[in-house]
């Protein structure tokens, strides 16, 4: 299989072939982090793997999902609050990680060192240097590592078709790409509150700084329901730089990924990231929020990214959610629900070659992200969403956040993977884990 970035690269000869000791020849999985997307990726995978263990620091979430898995597969998985008990088991081939972002790197690295293949939800990292560490550990351990950017497999092939159109020259030379990733809203003042009895708040914080639990009594409805509408935990973690990167590393991790893939720049990066306009919901000084009882990620933004070959990449909170590709000979728009524009309409009379989609994908297209990972576990090659291409794309999203936090454009060296001539900005490429939650290597 030949996917973007490092895909198609054979792993170390000593790497364990999945299922070699599994009597039913199905891989044995465990999931760490079970709210929302954690259950989503687990439920999509139950027909493909045996889930023998689940872990979550919220006892209610853990119990609910143990029962869900039991109902689906006929046998209850073991339940743990501490994910390390999963990593200690030698009967587990792979782990799926769907914790808040600030936990991803620690668990992923420790899982690889424990001999597990890894599926980790996007965005893979909280900082740029975390991505470099994960790349190093994938090479060192020879593990298969799938990042959960499912637009590469599970959006009716619209994004693969978009990339095929670009590669076939249907809009000429690409000049501009606009990624609409929606904005967000700030929050009211969120007071310190009693920690729910079922939640281990200190363990939830983990590598992040120790702070009080905050929540308002109003409950969230719909997707993500069952938790406070405003808090510094659970569903709301994406609104805090301490745990995530807002829309830039949420939707941005999807659409910027497709943009870079279309450009063929999965192993390269920008030269400059400029915050054209943006709104932060609280006051900042030297890149850090001065107010700690409200959401702090950017609510509105327009970021200009100077990509190789004079391509302009715009990341914006305005307009439709999706990607607009503009070239010298035309333009088209694609998102999860549609792909529209004159180059798309022209396919009726001038279709793409029959193998165009598979050419982009690097083989037969999988409709399930976990299935693609299991194929990689069998072949010991990296899957469609590999860590190298993901990190290169995610660097753009991280740099966008750093630029807004500091209020200035950033020049980037994609070879050295560091910010040029700005020592203060370079301090944001890493963050030290809280004492007691260092990565065990």
TrEMBL record:
PANTHER family: BCDNA.GH03377, OXIDOREDUCTASE FAMILY PROTEIN. GO terms for molecular function: nucleotide binding. It comes from Blastopirellula marina DSM 3645. Residues 73-148 form the Gfo/Idh/MocA-like oxidoreductase N-terminal domain. This is Probable NADH-dependent dehydrogenase. Pfam families: GFO_IDH_MocA, GFO_IDH_MocA_C2. Residues 185-438 form the Gfo/Idh/MocA-like oxidoreductase bacterial type C-terminal domain. Gene3D superfamilies: Dihydrodipicolinate Reductase, domain 2 (3.30.360.10), NAD(P)-binding Rossmann-like Domain (3.40.50.720). SUPFAM superfamilies: Glyceraldehyde-3-phosphate dehydrogenase-like, C-terminal domain (SSF55347), NAD(P)-binding Rossmann-fold domains (SSF51735).
């Amino acid at each position: 299989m030949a996917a973007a970035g490092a895909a198609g690269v054979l792993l170390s000869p000593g790497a364990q072939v999945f299922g070699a000791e599994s009597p039913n020849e199905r891989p044995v999985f465990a999931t760490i982090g079970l709210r929302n997307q954690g259950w989503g990726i687990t439920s999509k995978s139950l027909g493909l793997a045996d889930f023998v263990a689940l872990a979550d620091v919220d006892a209610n979430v853990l119990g609910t999902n143990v029962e869900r898995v039991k109902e689906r597969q006929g046998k209850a998985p073991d339940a743990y609050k501490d994910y390390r008990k999963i990593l200690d088991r030698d009967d587990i081939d792979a782990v799926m990680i769907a914790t808040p972002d600030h936990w991803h790197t620690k668990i992923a690295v420790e899982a690889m060192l424990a001999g597990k293949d890894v599926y980790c939800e996007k965005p893979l990292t909280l900082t740029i240097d975390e991505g470099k560490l994960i790349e190093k550990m994938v090479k060192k351990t020879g593990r298969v590592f799938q990042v959960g950017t499912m637009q590469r497999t599970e959006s009716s092939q619209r994004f693969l078709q978009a990339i095929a159109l670009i590669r076939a020259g249907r809009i000429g030379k690409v000049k501009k790409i606009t990624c609409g990733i929606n904005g967000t809203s700030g929050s009211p003042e969120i007071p310190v509150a009693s920690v729910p009895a079922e939640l281990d708040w200190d363990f939830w914080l983990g590598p992040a700084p120790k702070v009080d639990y905050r929540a308002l009594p109003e409950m969230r409805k719909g997707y993500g329901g069952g938790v406070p509408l405003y808090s510094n935990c659970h569903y709301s973690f994406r609104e805090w730089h301490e745990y995530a990167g807002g829309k830039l590393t949420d939707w941005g991790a999807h659409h910027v990924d497709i943009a870079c893939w279309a450009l063929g720049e999965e192993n390269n990066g920008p030269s400059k990231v400029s915050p054209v306009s943006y709104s932060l919901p609280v006051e900042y000084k030297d890149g850090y929020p001065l107010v700690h009882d409200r959401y702090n990620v950017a609510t509105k933004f327009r970021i200009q990214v100077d990509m190789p070959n004079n391509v302009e990449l715009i990341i914006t909170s305005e307009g439709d959610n999706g990607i607009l590709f503009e070239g010298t000979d035309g333009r088209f728009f694609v998102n999860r629900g549609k792909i529209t524009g004159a180059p798309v309409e022209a396919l009726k009379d001038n279709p793409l070659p029959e193998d165009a989609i598979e050419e982009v994908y690097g083989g037969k297209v999988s409709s399930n992200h976990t299935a693609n990972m299991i194929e990689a576990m069998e072949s010991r090659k990296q899957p469609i969403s590999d860590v190298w291409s993901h990190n290169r794309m995610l660097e753009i999203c991280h740099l966008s956040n750093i630029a807004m936090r500091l209020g200035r454009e950033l020049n980037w060296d994609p070879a050295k993977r560091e910010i040029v001539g700005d020592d203060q900005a370079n301090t944001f490429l890493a963050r030290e884990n809280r004492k007691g939650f260092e990565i065990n290597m």
